[in-house]
Design goal:
By secondary structure, the chain is mostly helical. The chain has one domain: Ammonium transporter fold (Orthogonal Bundle), CATH 1.10.3430. It contains 17 helices and 2 strands. Strands 1-2 form a two-stranded antiparallel sheet. The chain is globular and about 85 Å long. The N and C termini lie far apart (101 Å).
Length: 534
């Protein structure tokens, strides 16, 4: 009897369990396919269920702008996440005694840059842009300061949108601000790598406000804010003016050229060069960190380039994203092969920089070229970045711990020039107010290549001059470089008050070691920066 009751209990339990599982499956569902929603009943209408053509058109137009705004915001979020990639790449390529300082620069530049851009940078850059067609047509940004030369207006900077106040309190303008702010922050963080391991934190903070409020917005206005470089086509018949779809020159070259100026003023790290000027290798402390950071950057670039359409309804985003991906692969591959062939080892650090070089180079032409051109642009960038790294280090005697000048400056220049060569005329109708699509030299428009050259030279001359003058004044006023003993010990505790790795014991320099390092400092690479320590 006991066994019989036990079996009955098991059977009943089984049936109850099956009922619990099967009943929801057999039960009536709601609307899992969503076919019952999003109907004509959801269209706001004076007479429910019977909208007029005008009412339907209003909803369609609203939804189009909504799609564009959501797309622009999401891609802006992706670009913001690139800050983590930059932090990992730069920290991985530097030494463990400076990790807290390097990470802190990459972190705080986001906050400083955002505030500076909010205060004045956005207004100077986009204050005279005009209506934002893809984001709703806001027309509050309507004050561009211009001068007349050769009978033509030369736009210099905008004057609307300070503090995002007044007429700028608009959903379209706020969306544009977020997207463009993270672009600016990308440019601002590039010099932190080139100037790492010997830069005082206080002058770095001042630099953050300078680049976000003045330097970056100035060139950005000339290209993206309706300024004079963008009007070279309308005013002088040079293609569609200087064209840069997503920032090879506006973002990357500005950051790279600024990094070059700053590294030159700051001087090389102690121990980087021998007395005869021969460079000593100073390896990074964490290659895996740098490689992971590179992948984060490559992922963020899918926001960087396709997002620059400012329109999720622009189906060209598929071409842009694929070109971006192909160029990154080509850059990594060619840099790897070149290092392997010439120096005998593939070198993971150059693999990473090769991928970044391809990404930087394709950023300007990504919307205007086909896949074959994208791969070629990436292949050239991968080799170019290797040449540039060794040229800057050996010939110019500029110490760039992470290769930022080469990746962003050199390959940024190649990117905008390549647009002037390979733009195939399948995109860009009416770009910068010029009828027709954008074509490069190889597709019949040599004048577009000339416009790209003018923009590239302008970037190098103006940005370098302003950045170099700023860093020289800043160095004279407060000194940019840490003392010798701080550089030897590491910047983490003296500058930041905390060690990046708690189990790391920083070296304590002796007076003899300090004198030896300073004495070995080559006289032709800014020895005066450390002579006071002797």
């Amino acid at each position: 009897m006991r066994e019989s009751r036990k079996r009955k209990f098991i059977y009943l339990s089984f049936l109850l369990l099956m009922g619990v599982l099967v009943f929801p499956i057999l039960g009536w569902a709601g609307d899992p396919a969503g076919t019952a929603i999003g109907t004509i009943q959801d269209i706001p209408a004076k007479e429910p269920g019977k909208p007029t053509l005008e009412e339907i058109g209003a909803v369609v137009g609203h939804n189009k702008i909504a799609i564009n705004i959501v797309w622009t915001l999401i891609t802006g979020f992706l670009v913001m996440f690139m800050q983590a990639g930059f932090a990992m790449v730069e920290t991985g390529f530097t030494r463990e005694k400076n990790v807290a300082h390097t990470m802190a620069m990459n972190f705080l530049i986001y906050a400083i840059g955002m505030l500076g851009y909010w205060i004045a940078g956005f207004a100077f850059m986009f204050g005279g842009l005009g209506p934002l067609a893809t984001l709703g047509g806001a027309s509050a940004l309507d004050h561009e300061v211009a001068i007349n030369l050769f009978g033509k207006p030369f736009g210099l900077f905008g004057l609307k949108g300070f503090f995002l106040s007044g007429d700028a309190y608009d959903v379209s303008i706020f969306t544009l601000f977020l997207f463009q702010m993270v672009f600016m922050d990308t440019a601002a963080t590039i010099p932190t790598g080139a100037m790492a391991e010997r830069w005082k934190f206080a002058p770095f903070v001042i630099y953050g406000f300078f680049i976000s409020m003045i330097l970056y917005p100035l060139f950005g206005n000339w290209v993206w804010g309706g300024g004079w470089l963008s009007q070279l086509g309308a005013n002088f018949g040079l293609g569609h003016g200087h064209v840069d779809f997503a920032g090879s020159s506006v973002v990357h070259m500005v950051g790279g050229v600024t990094a070059l100026a700053g590294a030159m003023v700051l001087g090389p790290r102690l121990g980087k060069y021998k007395k005869d000027g021969t460079p000593n290798p100073i390896p990074g402390h964490n290659i895996p960190m740098a490689i992971i950071g590179t992948f984060i950057l490559a992922f963020g670039w899918f926001g960087f380039n396709p997002g620059s359409t400012l329109a999720g309804t622009d189906l060209r985003i598929g071409v842009i994203a694929t070109n971006t991906m192909l160029a990154s692969a080509a850059g990594a591959f060619s840099a790897t092969l070149y290092m392997w062939w010439v120096y005998g080892k593939p070198d993971p650090s150059m693999m990473a920089n090769g991928m970044l070089a391809g990404l930087v180079a394709i950023t300007a032409p990504c919307a205007f070229v086909n896949s074959v051109a994208a791969v070629f642009i990436g292949l050239v960038a991968g080799v170019l970045v290797v040449w540039s790294v060794f040229f800057i280090e050996k010939t110019l005697k500029v110490d760039d711990p992470v290769g930022a000048v080469s990746v962003h400056g050199t390959c940024g220049a190649w990117g905008v020039l390549s647009l002037g060569l390979f733009a195939d005329g399948t995109y860009g109708e009416g770009w910068n107010g010029v009828p027709g699509t954008v074509k490069g030299l190889f597709y019949g428009d040599a004048s577009q290549f000339i416009a790209q050259i003018i923009g590239t030279l302008t970037n190098f001359i103006v940005v370098f001059t302003l950045a170099y003058a700023f860093f020289k004044v800043l160095d004279a006023v407060m000194g940019m470089r840490v003392p010798v003993e701080v550089e030897i010990q590491g910047l983490d505790v003296p500058e930041m008050g905390v060690q990046g790795y708690t189990d790391y014991q920083p070296p304590i320099p002796t007076e003899e070691e300090k004198k030896r390092l300073v004495a070995d400092f080559p006289p032709h690479v800014n020895k005066k920066l450390v002579q006071a320590e002797m």
